[in-house]
Amino acid sequence: MMPLAGLRVLDLSHVLAGPYATYHLALLGADVIKIERPPVGDAMRDLETLPEREGLTAAFHGVNAGKRSLALDLKTRAGRDALKRLIPTADVFLENFRPGKMAALGFGPEDVRALNPRIIYASISAWGQQGAMAARPGYDHVMQAATGLMWLQGDDPAAPPVKMGAPVIDMAAGMLGAIALLSAVLRRRAGDDGPIHLDISMADAATALAAAPAWRYLLEGVAPRRIGTAAFAGSPGGGVWRTADGWLATAANTRAQFEALCGALGQPAWAAPPWLSMLPDAPDAILRNCGTPALDDALRGAFTTRGSAEWDALLAPLGVPAAPVRRPDEFLEGPYAQTGGMHADVAGVGRLLGLGFRVNGAPVAPARGAPKLGADSAHVLREAGFTEAEITALG
Question: What's residue 392's pLDDT?
Fold first, then answer.
């Protein structure tokens, strides 16, 4: 039995962050009803720009597989009335519009609780539900710029900003949203009947992703700096190095790991002064900021003598963390295929990624793809007691 079987979620979110939060719930057994405005639905369907996909793009499948779709236009009286009849049947109500928009439609937290006092109300937004920034909109790359993540990339303080290659803040906000929702479900199951309004923001998600530099500034007053491909640990054996045919990342952070690395390079003397500015006694001590410019130059030259795969094969048996720098497709068809994986092969769709963990060795992955717009409207409305005439009137 799935842990969230019997839980009903009304998902009024769109694009990535909100849908990814409820995607976790759907794959854990919840009945997630995705409520979309006809005739185009969630923007990720790309119905107008990619009509040949029939609203089932890869991006839409990726965060909406396993859900049901109900087409409702909340700008109409009939659509709002239909949603009001559905709210008492649900356990969770999630939206990710700008603060105030749902209240203007009559579905703010207090409005929804008046219809269902036990419902868990969740809001995902750019800047949260309170404060001077709350009304501001935000998409992933804008939030990367606003929160410092975009500035952190690279190693030259004067260089242009570099956006991360994936919508990391959107996805992190979705994951945090799923954690928040699961915690609220546990509260309900423990007997807490009080109001629950979850406030998940992209700003907080970005701060969580950049927690390490945030800690140093908040606790020690040290402003973050760009470190490029150097190791976060500040060790001389951590970084990304040019090889004979590409690039290699290493994380020989401890004394023992660095000694193994230097041995593989044929230069065991590099693991001691004067190449190192100091040498901790403990084998598992991190060589934090112990490198010298001469050592860095020597390492850069040494790595160019072999190819990335050759270095990888040489270092792995020695316990030195290392990997060639790969494209995402190279990873998916290479090392990922040798892991347990988090995907499932779904008939008629292809490989869909599930959640980022396995239970008893099995991935938590979808059994079916995402629904077409409104595919489940009639069924969902019948379950809620709508007559055939009422269903027809809603379109």
Answer: 94
